[in-house]
Amino acid sequence: MKQPIHHEVVIVGGGQAGLSVSHGLTAQGVQHIVFEKHRAMHVWKTQRWDNFCLVTPNWQCQLPGHPYAGPDPHGFMKKDEILQYLDAFRAHVNAPLREGVAVELVKPLAEGGFLVRTSEGECTAGQVVVASGGYHEPIVPRLAERLPPQIMQVHSAQYRNAAQLPPGKVLVVGSGQSGAQIAEDLHLAGREVVLAVGDAPRCARFYRGRDVVDWLADMGYYEMPVGQHPLREGVRDNTNHYVTGRDGGRDIDLRRFASEGMALYGVLTGLDDDRDTLRFATGLRESLDRADRTYNGINASIDRYIEASGLDAPPGGVYEPVWQPAEERETLSLRDAGIASIVWCIGFTPDFRWLDAPVFNGRGHPIQQRGVTAVPGLYFIGLPWLHTWGSGRFSGVARDADHLVRQALLHRSAQPAELAAA
User: Fold this and answer.
1) How far is residue 277's CA from residue 386's CA, in Å, rounded to a whole number?
2) Model confidence over 235-268: pLDDT tens digits?
3) Is the pLDDT of residue 358 over 50?
4) 200 pLDDT band (50/70/90 cuts)?
5) Global confidence as pTM
6) Of 35, 20, 39, which Cα lies nearest the Cα of 93?
């Protein structure tokens, strides 16, 4: 019987994380293969709206061997520029990449290593790096099934531009990074927007003469490992702060949007039996106040850093609300409000059903320490706060990849010679 092909390392996922590991393995002469279900950088090419841009400055794009080298390090690359940067990274790495090959099963073998079943057959691997990210299944609540069929519904992963949606008001559900930016995109396009506000925090784009990211970098925030964060692993559950790099970068202020006509509601909680009346939780004022406290709290930490360092910087200040909700609105008639479309911006859930290994918690999230699991030779990379704030971003994945490559080399050296060469 013909034995399946054996690879020293199998990498699952051909995004920036998987190719970063490939870059390191190639440099160390480790034989490996990268399986990508779709095409390299699939998410970047298919799940970003037309006006998407980075929310962190270009200088933070530090993929291994491929730092940002353009003319605007403190600017924010737009979608097409991001894709060009990533395509150049792919060419730089020149990974042993198999596109259009879905990994259907990874399972540890009793004798060591892993069985890997793909859409093109089976192989074995000495080690496996899961680089498929954690944003797999778009979250859409079950109440969406009961909404009137004439209302167009899209998830943030499907949203492209305002012209994609039919005439009429747009309900955007969720005010995290995607929801806030999509609401802004629609607002700037002249669409009437109703925004169901969640608990996402916000931060300033610029403060005291510099981008807030620059200040936080100097303060060492981006070097802080998850184990030293005040929330520890709980920080992985935090919603990202909303801010934008659009038009050179600016704050996103939902209160200002409201003063310009955007209708703000609280968290969407249900749909009445009439299939027309949406229900919202009270607490919009508290949500906005909480986001502003985070905004002012980050700025206050920058104030303390400037004072302690004896730096000369323009004066700071405290954000004062430009709008307050006059009342709590708990219901909305879709028909009376003229809602013609809904954009769901409430995130994704992970889907690792193909990985048959005891490395998950009750919520389906991997249990790992800086990407290393309790199963020898099985690793994760590219997840938010895997190790630091930058782990799920262009800024920190190179360091994580370097760490996993070192772990892979250590694991290989500890294996019996006949298994390592299988």
Assistant:
1) 41
2) 676 778 999 999 999 999 999 999 999 999 999 9
3) yes
4) very high
5) 0.94
6) 20
Q: Whole-angstrom Cα distance, residue 171 to residue 193?
A: 6
State the DSSP code for 221. G
User: How far apart, in whole angstroms, are the C-alpha atoms of residue 130 and residue 407?
Assistant: 14
| Six token digits for residue 239 | 């919603």
Domains of the chain and any CATH numbers:
5-136+350-420 (3.50.50.60), 138-344 (3.50.50.60)
In three-state secondary structure terms, 19 is helix
Task: Using CB atoms within 10 Å of the CB of residue 148, give its burial: 0 to 12 exposed, 13 to 18 middle, 19+ buried.
Answer: exposed
Q: 3-state DSSP: the chain helix, strand, coil percent, rounded to 5?
A: 35, 25, 45
Q: How far apart are alpha carbons 109 and 223 in whole angstroms? A: 37
Convert the pLDDT of each residue in 34-52 to its tens digit: 999 999 999 999 999 999 9
The rounded distance, in Å, linking the Cα atoms of 402 and 63 is: 11
The β-bridge relationship of strands 5-12 and 121-130 is parallel
CA nearest to 21, candidates 136, 118, 132: 132
* Cβ atoms of 72 and 58 closer than 8 Å: yes
